[in-house]
Amino acid sequence: MTSEITIVSNPTAGRGRGAGAVGPAADALRRAGFDVCTVVGTDAADALARAREAVAAGTGALVAVGGDGMVSLALQAVAGTGTPLGVVAVGTGNDFARATGLPIREPAAAGEAIARALKEESVREIDLGRAGERWFGTVLASGFDSRVNDRGNRMRRPSGRLRYDVAMLAELAALRPIPYRITLDDGAEQEIEATLVAVGNGTSYGGGMRICAGAELDDGRFDICVVGPCSRSTLLRVFPRVYRGTHLGHPVVTVHRAAAITLAADGITGYADGEPLGPLPLTARTVPRALRLLAAP
Question: Coiled coil located at which positions (predicted)?
Answer without folding.
Answer: none
